[in-house]
Design brief:
Blueprint lengths: L4 E3 L5 H12 L2 H8 L1 H19 L7 E4 L5 H8 L4 E5 L7 E3 L13 E6 L8 H11 E11 L10 E3 L2 H4 L7 E10 L4 E9 L3 H21 L5
Helix pairs in contact: 3-4
Length: about 220
């Protein structure tokens, strides 16, 4: 998606992975995140967030991408959800080592729900969506917390044209809802995608959801 994504320059993919591991594995940062007050504060936030979804439907088998210390995993487990996390730096027992741009260890069509708030840590957001689409069951959902305008030292990519990117993914996902949510640090777009394999049905859903997304963008002062 040329022109839609600004990417940090890396010599190769190995350098990208090494950079992400260096940030995530920083011992001082990990110790700070694991402090009981900080960890429990995030768990509470995620419990409140995911309870909204559980009030409407069962999340089923859930995988959190870029899960770091696993606060969202702990929250989901406390809510009775079958889940685990994936991160380049594992945090046993609930966050396993893995690359969310290459989920080769997950079989096609076996996951009910994916969640991530780490899309800016991906060097190729399209690959994240492609892998999520491959691994989701028909009707499964991908919940993305996206931070518009979020480009800092830690970011590996920045979606410069989100109003185009999120409606032009070349996979079996249809954007079915968009809203602005308050996180612990700032506001994010909460985007919900559903896997719809049938192309006719996907076209129908996309026509409806594109109109809804345009309304969302107008309300958030971002124009198509």
């Amino acid at each position: 998606m040329s022109g839609m994504i600004r990417k940090r320059e890396y010599k190769d993919y190995d350098e990208y992975v090494a950079h992400q591991i260096e940030k995530t594995a920083d011992p001082e940062r990990r110790a700070r995140l694991l402090q009981k007050f900080n960890f429990n504060k995030k768990v509470l936030y995620f419990k409140q967030k995911f309870q909204r979804f559980l009030d409407k439907a069962n999340l089923g088998q859930t995988v959190c991408l870029g899960a770091r210390m696993g606060e969202e995993i702990e929250a989901l487990l406390q809510l009775g959800v079958d889940c685990y996390g994936v991160d380049l730096v594992p945090h046993p027992p609930h966050v396993i080592k893995g690359d969310f741009q290459d989920l080769h260890f997950i079989e096609d069509g076996t996951v009910d729900t994916f969640y991530t708030n780490s899309l800016d840590h991906s060097s190729d957001p399209e690959k994240v969506f492609s892998e999520a689409s491959r691994c989701l069951k028909e009707g499964g959902v991908f919940i993305v917390d996206y931070f518009p305008g979020h480009w800092e030292d830690h970011a590996a990519s920045y979606i410069e044209a989100p109003e185009k990117f999120f409606v032009n993914m070349k996979c079996d996902l249809a954007l079915i809802n968009a809203s602005v949510v308050s996180t612990m640090s700032n506001e994010a777009w909460e985007l919900i995608f559903r896997k719809v394999e049938n192309p006719v049905e996907r076209a129908r859903v996309n026509k409806w959801s594109d109109m809804k997304f345009k309304g969302f963008l107008n309300r958030t002062q971002i124009k198509m």
